[in-house]
Amino acid sequence: MEMQEIPDVDPQETQEWLDALDSVIRHEGAERAQYLLEQLVEKARRNGAYLPFSATTAYCNTILAGQEERSPGDHEIEDRIRAYVRWNAMAMVVRANKHTNVGGHIASFASAATLYDVGYNHFWRAPSDNFGGDMVFVQGHSAPGVYARAFLLGRLSQEQMDNFRQEVDGKGLSSYPHPWLMPDFWQFPTVSMGLGPLMAIYQARFMRYLRDREIIQPQGRKVWAFMGDGEMDEPESLGAISLAGREKLDNLVFVINCNLQRLDGPVRGNSKIIQELESNFRGAGWNVIKVIWGGYWDTLFARDTKGLLMKRLEECVDGEFQTFKSKDGAYVRKHFFGKYPELLELVSTMSDDDIWRLNRGGHDPHKVYAAYAAAMKHSGQPTVILAKTIKGYGMGEAGESQNITHQQKKMGTSSIKTFRDRFNVPVPDEQLEEVPYLKFEEGSPELTYMRERRAALGGYLPARRQKAAPLEVPPLSAFDALLKATGEGREMSTTMAFVRILTTLVRDKKIGKFVVPIVPDESRTFGMEGMFRQLGIYSHVGQLYTPQDAEQLMFYKEDKKGQILEEGINEAGAMSSWIAAATSYSTHGIPMIPFYIYYSMFGFQRIGDLAWAAGDMRARGFLLGGTAGRTTLNGEGLQHEDGHSHLQAATIPNCISYDPTYAYELAVIVQDGMRRMYQEQEDVYYYITVMNENYEHPAMPAGAEASILKGMYLLREGKAKKGAPKVQLLGSGTILREVIAGAELLEKEYGVSADIWSVTSFNELRRNGLDVQRWNMLHPEQPPRLSHIEECLKDRGGPVIAATDYMKLFADQVRAFIPGRKFFALGTDGFGRSDTREKLRGFFEVNRHYVTVAALKSLADEELVPQSTVAAAIVKYGIDPEKPNPTTV
Ligand SMILES: Cc1ncc(C[n+]2csc(CCOP(=O)(O)OP(=O)(O)O)c2C)c(N)n1
Ligand SMILES: [Mg+2]
Questions:
Q1: Which ligand has the minimum distance to the alpha carbon of residue 405?
Q2: What is the atom index within ligand 1 of the atom nearest the CA of 194?
Q3: Which residues line ligand 1 (CB under 6 A)?
Q4: For 64, which of 103, 153, 350, 414 is 20 to 30 Å away at the CA?
Q5: What tens digit of pLDDT does each residue of 335-362 get?
Q6: What is the DSSP letter of 585?
């Protein structure tokens, strides 16, 4: 039975209990009362009473009116500053949309202004020489308010403000927080809803990791993350809150702006978002601070001796609260207070205007200050502040609390006038039309105050560090063993080669400790379990148990100083950890070298938007797509066999991707990646596929390094007799080995001379090809340049056949740079399935026989061999010409 349904059979007894509780609270405090209540509940439960768990508290502020820490600030000055910030934020959107249709948002920041203002004035500390700085994740749609403040401080010019959302010609401001576009300003891209909350949790966790490993000092730094209440519907927003609770991340503060609306309408019209979130977060072990009602309500609550006001507030749903705020005081009197005569009586001496002024907590700087101060002091848990606000606050009939408000970017002169009057800013009537920006004069108390506040907090925010001291990257010779041939009969996979590289790196005296191996419960899949013992698995509390395998050499060792981040079955979390590590050069001033290795299928396909955000954030690190290749991960079938992650990698402009075959290629790629990212500090990151197929690895051909990095090099020259037909065979990953076998068949059985090229990156070849093509187009009168692939193939004749373990489109990307020549791409289009590698390569038509047939067919089409030779080869290799296309079955 739900609580509400139990009738009060003895009101007098109820009152006695309540009085007793009152007295305990008064004389011994709330904590004692809580203790007694918990004892009672526990006792009732043990005696068989069914007491359903309730994670919510009353619909009122968590911090009582008398217990709020008071802000030391100058409230009048802060009010004026906030009014100017509000005005400028509105003005920049309205002005930008007078002459363009670039869009923008007014209503989100209008609801959040106080939440940011109190933070900037009193809480958020900038990085300085002796302090690492707080990290603030600004809600994407509130960016105009952050620009407006930076403008008042002289950090942004009027020209920049007027170029809001007009970035192409430079001197513009990006629509939302994008470090890629404003690298010295924004730190965290947040506008893809849900990623901000998730990444913030892992930033806080990574900060703790760095501290536990004594790479940074304990300084009480905090991660503050702002988000919308609608945004909380994203699974990513709530998906990691239990991790934050479990890890007791008291360096983390979420501020959820509960304006009760999202884009289309109410977030929870039929219930209460604040109560729902409260129970979610409390259940996950968070400290929850509700900031629901502003100070004007306090006197009403004090007079609400029977709890009727509270009852009325509890029974209203968010849809009603929204409607109230879209009307006026008279409406609220009639429809809210009017439900009970006693409540009407309670407000009888108040005018309609007074009723209208009853404010929400998120608009009351005192309440917000008290909540932030409590969050700063709270230890042992992360804190979430649930602040109730009004969407479009101050926009009046142009949007306040209206369903259409999210997308309002224009305001008529009369609405602008109301806005001006509401916030009492000095804009004369005749200037309302142009919506001028406001500035505080040099030397004015407001500007001085703003500057002083920021100086006291270490400097301006947002601000992003672009470079850190470079690392001393080991030379290629550090991986000498991998540059040599494995030797006759000694086989290994590129995954094993990668683990050797990683082992070498973590042992490096200079940079070893900066390496961060990250796995989502797949260490054993990749043969990395040896590192458990060697490096330790990070755990803030160390290891509180004797591991089952303690007797073994490579036991499961959890350690406070552990280096490995073993994230559990949690690719989104692991990727967020990787992002935190990969941006540590910026957020901590210490470059970390993260290697995140995962099933390649559960990479871009699963966490693609985080990978995109990582590009935006200028992440530097390595992603390793393990067990890659549609036919190479043989037994696992449709959901596991990846034949497209490289195409997804190609969509991210600063992600450099490789599909190497040999250990030496991998060593060259990783070493150069380290050089580029940690020595030269280029803002790129790497995606490298590694496979689990074992084979012999040859020694690196002398001088191949540069071409390996450019994307292709000549592995072997065709051997057939002079005058024989020629083909150029290209291959990558494990399929290169089928290409080599195909070349042998072509030479031995058909007298065709086949040059073999190891293509380490079709993606890089295409980028280079496009770049050269573009240059040639724009420089028509200059001698044309050649791309790397053109350079490689220009003196080597014959059709070009390329084969990979990825979709045909992967190799097909380079077709444009082989003009006038026959080009045939083999690949693994279609759903994977489980079987042996041999069977799968036959099924997907990428094995040596298909390489041979494709080469013969290309030669036949150029009349260099008869078509009958192709037909004979098809018969010889037992290929059924009527076999269905693998994409269809
Ligand atoms: C992943 C994703 N989906 C959709 C959007 C489009 N979108 C932007 S803001 C918004 C509504 C936001 O509502 P809320 O989180 O409550 O923020 P508010 O503006 O109310 O503060 C939507 C749907 C987006 N930015 N990201
Ligand atoms: Mg909202």
A1: 1
A2: 1
A3: 108, 111, 141, 191-194, 228-231, 257, 259, 261-263, 267, 391, 406
A4: 350
A5: 999 999 999 999 999 999 999 999 999 9
A6: H
